[in-house]
Design a protein that fits this description.
This protein has 374 residues and is mostly helical. It has one domain. Helix content is 65%, strand content 4%. It has 13 helices and four strands. Strand 3 and strand 4 form a beta hairpin. The radius of gyration is 22 Å and the shape is globular. The chain starts with a helix and ends with a helix.
Length: 374
C-alpha cells in the first residue's frame, strides 16, 4: 500500500476512485444506451426529465432506492442477499488491476494509474472474472423459485462455455509478449509494427503501431465475441432473457438489489472493453506517438518534472478512456443490431466453433513462435 502515510492515502483514494468509476459510469451508460437505441430505431428516447433526458437517471435512482423491499417466502435469505453483492465484486476487482495510464512520478513517489499492480495481471483478471457464475447460481438457488433456478443453470452453462474460448484467445498474446504483466504488454505495443521470421525482418511505417490486433487477429475476434457472452449481452443474453415474461436468475429481485445486478452487468462490459483495448489496441499508448516522444514533449512544455509526469499520465489516461468508450459504444450498437441466438445455437457456437478456433490460434501461435526462434 505504501511506505508512508501520504503514499498509503493516495493508494487508498485510488481504490475508491476505481470503484466509483464502475458505479458512477453505469447511469451514464444506461442513458447512452437509451438515447443510442432510440436513434438507431428512429425514436426520441428519454427527453422529458431534464435536458436531453439526463435527469431520468436521478428519477431511476429514486425508484431503485425507494421500491418496496421484497423477499420470497421460500428464499434462502443469506444466499438471496449475498448474490447481488457477489455480482458486483468481480468486475470491480478486475478493473482495479488494469493499467489506465502511464505511472506518475511525484518527487520520490511513483503512483500507478490503477487500483493495484499485480505482476501476473492476466491470471488475476481471469480468476476474479470467473467468479461471476457464483453470483448467478446464488441468485437462482437463493430465490427459491424454479424459474430463477432454471435461468441460473442456463446462465452458468453459457458463461462457463465461453470462458474457455476467451481464456485460450489470450494465450497467444502471452506467448508473443512473453509476460503476464499487463503494463509490460502495453509498453510492448508502442513500437512501430514489425515482423521477424527466420531471419527476415519487415517494419511498417512508423505511424502504424505494434498493436496486438495485427499479430493476433483471430484471437481478437474470438475474444471480442466471447466478451459478449461473458457480459450476458445480446446476442448472448440468454442468461437473463430480458425480453421474456420470466426474466431469468434475477426474476425475484427488485429495487436496490436489482440495481447491484445491473451494475455488475455493465461492470463486466466495461472490463471486457478495457481488456480489448489493453490486449489488442495498445492500451493507454497514443497511436503514432511513442512514450519517449510524449515524455520529451511534456518535459519541454510543463513547468517541472512533477507537472510533466502528471501531464503524460493524464494524456495517456484520456487516450485509454477514448478507446474504452468506442468499444462500449460497440457493445450498445451490437445489442440493438443483432437478434438473439437460440440456446442450442449459442452452445454450438461456443463449443463447436469458437473453442476449436481458439485452440487452432493457440497451436498456430506456438508453432510460429517456436520456428521464429530457431
Amino acid at each position: 500500500m505504501g511506505h508512508d502515510i501520504f503514499e498509503v492515502s493516495i493508494n487508498a483514494i485510488k481504490l475508491i476512485v476505481v470503484f466509483l468509476i464502475i458505479v458512477q459510469a453505469v447511469p451514464f451508460l444506461v442513458w447512452l444506451e437509451r438515447r443510442g437505441s432510440a436513434f438507431i430505431q428512429n425514436r426520441l428516447g428519454p427527453n422529458r426529465i431534464g435536458p436531453l433526458g439526463l435527469m431520468q437517471l436521478a428519477a431511476d435512482a429514486v425508484k431503485f432506492f425507494f421500491k418496496e423491499e421484497f423477499v420470497p417466502a421460500s428464499a434462502v435469505k443469506l444466499l438471496y442477499y449475498a448474490a447481488p453483492v457477489v455480482a458486483l465484486i468481480p468486475a470491480t476487482l478486475a478493473f482495479a488491476a488494469i493499467p489506465l495510464g502511464q505511472p506518475v512520478q511525484w518527487n520520490e513517489y511513483t503512483f500507478r494509474l490503477q487500483g493495484y499492480e499485480i505482476n501476473v495481471g492476466i491470471v488475476f483478471v481471469l480468476a476474479v472474472s470467473s467468479l461471476a457464475p457464483y453470483a448467478i447460481l446464488l441468485a437462482g438457488w437463493g430465490s427459491g423459485n424454479k424459474y430463477a433456478l432454471m435461468g441460473a443453470l442456463r446462465a452458468s452453462a453459457q458463461v462457463i462455455s465461453y470462458e474457455l474460448a476467451l481464456g485460450l484467445s489470450i494465450v497467444g498474446m502471452i506467448m508473443l509478449y512473453g509476460t503476464f504483466n499487463l503494463s509490460e504488454m502495453v509498453l510492448a505495443q508502442q513500437a512501430p509494427l514489425s515482423y521477424s521470421f527466420l531471419g527476415a525482418n519487415w517494419t511498417a511505417p512508423s505511424w502504424l503501431p505494434a498493436w496486438g490486433i495485427f499479430y493476433q487477429p483471430l484471437g481478437a475476434i474470438v475474444f471480442f465475441a466471447a466478451s459478449f457472452a461473458e457480459s450476458n449481452r445480446l446476442p448472448f443474453d440468454l442468461a437473463e432473457g430480458e425480453a421474456e415474461l420470466v426474466a431469468g436468475f434475477h426474476v425475484e429481485y427488485g429495487g436496490f438489489k436489482m440495481l447491484l445486478f445491473f451494475i455488475g452487468e455493465y461492470g463486466h462490459m466495461i472490463v471486457a472493453s478495457a481488456l480489448m483495448v489493453l490486449f489488442y489496441f495498445g492500451g493507454y499508448t497514443i497511436p503514432g506517438i511513442s512514450m519517449a516522444d510524449l515524455n520529451q514533449w511534456a518535459a519541454e512544455h510543463a513547468p517541472g518534472a512533477n507537472a510533466a509526469s502528471l501531464t503524460v499520465g493524464l494524456l495517456t489516461l484520456l487516450c485509454f478512456f477514448v478507446k474504452l468508450a468506442l468499444f462500449i459504444w460497440l457493445f450498445i450498437q451490437v445489442r440493438w443490431t443483432l437478434p438473439r441466438f437460440r440456446y442450442d445455437q449459442l452452445m454450438d457456437l461456443g463449443w463447436k466453433t469458437m473453442l476449436p478456433w481458439a485452440l487452432f490460434n493457440t497451436i498456430l501461435t506456438a508453432a510460429l513462435v517456436y520456428v521464429a526462434h530457431l
